[in-house]
From TrEMBL:
<feature type="domain" description="DUF7223">
    <location>
        <begin position="211"/>
        <end position="411"/>
    </location>
</feature>
<dbReference type="Pfam" id="PF22974">
    <property type="entry name" value="DUF7029"/>
</dbReference>
<dbReference type="InterPro" id="IPR055647">
    <property type="entry name" value="DUF7223"/>
</dbReference>
<feature type="domain" description="DUF7029">
    <location>
        <begin position="62"/>
        <end position="154"/>
    </location>
</feature>
<dbReference type="InterPro" id="IPR054293">
    <property type="entry name" value="DUF7029"/>
</dbReference>
<keyword id="KW-0732">Signal</keyword>
<feature type="signal peptide">
    <location>
        <begin position="1"/>
        <end position="20"/>
    </location>
</feature>
<protein>
    <submittedName>
        <fullName>Uncharacterized protein</fullName>
    </submittedName>
</protein>
<dbReference type="Pfam" id="PF23865">
    <property type="entry name" value="DUF7223"/>
</dbReference>
Length: 442
């Protein structure tokens, strides 16, 4: 089942997690824009300057005037000095004539790239008492820390994939741009070894601590591979979220190969969901503005519907080459494409089982997203899960499609489903058509 999780705590294993801060974007052709504060405080940030990537936009509607210096090409430098003085260096002479008309108090957004007062995070200050030194092309302000939410009437946050981003060059040695040579899509590879094309953790156990089962029933070659892009929109007031949507697009392949090998009888059983691995991914963030911490989680379970002795190997792969999922977190409406025609591939069947039996193994890859905006004003935990089940039935006797009644018929199927979960609301959306991976008479 596909699950969207909100306000649900996910337990993470301890690993080193890298962080990729977005780059503050300056609108093109903004050099001639008047240097005026408004009541719309806007910031735009890009994941990469070297090509396509995610772009984040945040807007605060403030009840006093506010300004983001990164929105103007002629702001060359911001320095935060002693006694709380903030100094802007400007290359546009006309901007110096605009500043005397500013209100006595203005909210200023100082992005993390300027390391204001030694802090590598986005900061907000109330500034005033400006003094201009045109010979140095600088303006100085007194400042005091600002709790921006006290001055915010409403907000909106958007994260989207932008395919059109072109590489840009640094304009000046004073402009701090982070240069990323990285995969900007979200990596959906779990237990996949790109060098071998198979699992990096073969033969993981479907069961823990059950006699005769843990070592005998394994996922011989199980992994996922793919990539995705993410879209998010959240808007509202400091007291209420009025709109929240999520979209995920990408491609995904799930490989499931199950192996049973036992010289003693395994009794009928089923296992609960077992978390095989959790992999925190690179955190996407603008320090002080938003933080999106993705993680990949792989859950599995297995079932045997009667006693079993012998050897059995089978498997298959299900792929979604171009899927899209959209959901509203408010009214719970969904829209999905690309899941109705998955591609299937069957793997070799082999067994020496001598009696009727049913065995199934299920993989549930999850992409979990932990979003925080404005230091916790908005806190959402969301995620997707696609469930893929490999089923194997071995039957003997009349009606098993074999020529002889004493022959064993081994049949393998692969299926899965897609669903939607918001808080306590669960709605199945789509069940993939069951595919017959093949049968064998022994």
């Amino acid at each position: 089942m596909f699950k969207l999780l909100i306000y649900h705590i996910l337990f993470c294993m301890i690993v080193v997690v890298t962080s990729a801060s977005f780059i503050a974007k300056t609108p093109q052709n903004s050099f001639n824009q008047p240097f005026h504060p408004t009541t719309k405080l806007y910031g735009s940030y890009a994941q990469s300057i070297n090509g396509p990537g995610h772009v984040a936009n945040i807007e605060l509607n403030t009840n006093i005037s506010s300004i983001n210096p990164d929105s103007f090409e002629y702001v060359q430098n911001i320095q935060c000095g002693q006694d709380g003085i903030i100094t802007l260096t400007l290359s546009n002479e006309a901007a110096f004539h605009d500043i005397p008309n500013w209100p006595s108090k203005v909210i200023i957004l100082v992005s993390d790239k300027w390391k204001c007062f030694g802090q590598s995070t986005t900061q907000f200050y109330l500034i005033g008492n400006q003094s201009i030194d045109e010979t140095k092309r600088q303006v100085n302000f007194t400042s005091e820390p600002c709790e921006v939410l006290k001055w915010t009437e409403s907000y909106s946050f958007d994260l989207a994939w932008d395919q059109s981003i072109k590489p840009i060059k640094k304009r000046t040695k004073n402009l701090y741009l982070r240069d990323f040579d990285q995969q900007t899509k979200i990596d959906l590879d779990i237990l996949f070894d790109s060098k071998t094309g198979s699992s990096s953790q073969p033969n993981f156990k479907f069961s823990i601590g059950q006699n005769n089962i843990s070592e005998s029933l394994v996922c011989k070659n199980c992994f996922t591979k793919g990539s995705a892009t993410i879209g998010l929109h959240v808007s509202g007031t400091p007291l209420n979220i009025t709109n929240a949507t999520i979209s995920i697009s990408g491609n995904l392949s799930i490989n499931v190969d199950v192996a049973v090998s036992t010289s003693v009888t395994i009794q009928k059983f089923s296992t609960p969901d077992i978390q095989i691995v959790e992999i925190p991914l690179t955190v996407l963030n603008v320090p002080g503005l938003f933080n999106l911490g993705p993680a990949l989680i792989l859950v599995a379970n297995a079932k045997v519907d009667s006693s079993l002795t012998g050897i059995l190997n089978t498997g298959g792969e299900i792929s979604f080459s171009n899927f899209q999922f959209q959901a509203s977190l408010i009214d719970k409406k969904t829209n999905v494409t690309g899941f109705d025609k998955p591609q299937f591939k069957s793997h070799k069947l082999s067994t020496d089982i001598k009696a009727s039996v049913g065995v199934s193994g299920t993989l549930k890859p999850q992409l979990a997203l932990d979003l925080s905006v404005l230091n916790g004003l908005v806190s959402l935990k969301t995620g997707i899960q696609i469930e893929s089940t490999l089923g194997i039935t071995a039957s003997i006797g009349n009606g098993n499609s074999c020529k002889k009644n004493n022959q064993l018929n081994l049949k393998s199927t692969l299926n899965g489903d897609l669903g939607f979960f918001v808080q306590n609301f669960v709605e199945p959306i789509f069940t993939f058509p069951s595919l017959d991976l093949g049968s064998l008479c022994l």
